[in-house]
């Protein structure tokens, strides 16, 4: 097998992943009247710089002592991870994922699960609430302009696993090359409820307004090993596509 054949899976996805600098993406408008009101606007997309790998795809492979050819070590490593992750994604149990990888920062259920109290008045001071995140209430580390929780456990699991299944080629390419994958997408159905900050973009003081969303974000990290795997660092209903 020559280098271009060995790298073909990752290489083809790299071209698709990088896209064109300045490509536009859609963002969510603040939801109106509790509905998932979305509209398309533009934002600048900045691709990940994979030029150090892309430059090797059509380059001359390194020579071995016996006169043969071998892939660059970084390219070989990415290729091995890509193939070892397999052609089909595993189905992730989000609760088990969070328990197994809490030390690595997995927190989907704790911070975004359907049982997280919604309103500031629903929990005593010092407890996490979805509304409280707009204001940066402890234990949130800082304020956010968008804060949502999953509508229910079934939606949480289905949305994350459906995304992995539909986008596995992109996901495993990113994990092989960067050991990381993050994406925000419109599911076309309700994902969660929560609040957005009416005072965002310098329009005034922080003010939490209730809303719902159909967007979601997933954040994944590679777990190196033989074989490699991955963890879901976070999966949450999102208010902004970026």
Describe the protein's architecture and organization:
The chain is of the alpha+beta class. It contains nine helices and eight strands. The protein has helices at about 5, 10-20, 50-55, 75-85, 95-100, 110, 130-135, 155-165, 170-180, and strands at about 60-65, 70, 145-150, 180-185, 190-195, 210-215, 215-225, 230-240. The strands form three sheets. The protein has a three-stranded antiparallel β-sheet. A three-stranded antiparallel β-sheet has the order 4-7-8. A hairpin with a 5-residue loop joins β7 and β8 (about 230-240). The radius of gyration is 21 Å and the shape is elongated. The two termini are about 40 Å apart. The relative contact order is 0.18. Mean pLDDT is about 80; it is low at about 1-10 and about 10-65.
Keywords:
single chain, 242 residues, alpha+beta, three-stranded antiparallel beta sheet, 32% helix, elongated
Q: How is the largest sheet built, in terms of strand order? A: 3-5-6
End-to-end C-alpha gap: 38 Å
Number of helices: 9
**Broad structural category:** alpha+beta
Mean pLDDT: 78
Low-pLDDT sequence parts: 1-9, 11-64
The string of secondary-structure elements, in order, is HHHEEHHHHEHHEEEEE
**Major sheet: size, sense and barrel closure?**
3 strands, antiparallel
> Hey, roughly how much beta strand do the residues contain?
15-25%
What is Rg? 21 Å
Strand runs, count: 8
Fraction of residues in helices?
25-40%
Label the overall shape: elongated
In short:
The longest helix is centred in the middle third of the chain and has 14 residues, at 153-166. The chain has 9 helices and 8 strands. The two termini are 38 Å apart.
């Amino acid at each position: 097998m020559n280098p271009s054949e060995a790298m073909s899976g990752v290489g083809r996805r790299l071209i698709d992943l990088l896209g064109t600098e300045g490509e536009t993406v859609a963002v969510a408008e603040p939801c109106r009247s509790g509905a998932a009101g979305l509209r398309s606007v533009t934002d600048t997309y900045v691709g990940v710089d994979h030029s150090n790998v892309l430059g090797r795809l059509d380059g001359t492979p390194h020579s071995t002592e016996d006169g043969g050819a071998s892939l660059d070590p970084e390219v070989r490593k990415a290729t091995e991870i890509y193939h070892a992750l397999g052609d089909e994604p595993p189905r992730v149990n989000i609760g088990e994922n969070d328990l197994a990888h809490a030390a690595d920062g997995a927190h989907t259920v704790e911070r975004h699960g359907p049982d997280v109290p919604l309103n500031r008045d629903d929990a005593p001071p010092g407890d996490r609430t979805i509304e409280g995140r707009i204001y940066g209430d402890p234990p949130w580390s800082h304020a956010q302009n968008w804060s949502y929780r999953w509508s229910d456990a079934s939606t949480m699991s289905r949305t994350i696993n459906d995304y992995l299944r539909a986008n596995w080629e992109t996901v495993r390419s990113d994990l092989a090359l960067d050991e990381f994958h993050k994406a925000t997408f419109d599911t076309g159905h309700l994902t969660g409820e929560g609040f957005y900050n009416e005072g965002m973009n310098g329009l005034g003081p922080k003010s939490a307004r209730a809303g719902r969303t159909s967007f979601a974000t997933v954040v994944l990290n590679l777990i190196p090993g033989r074989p490699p795997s991955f963890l879901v660092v976070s999966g949450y209903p999102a208010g902004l596509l970026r």
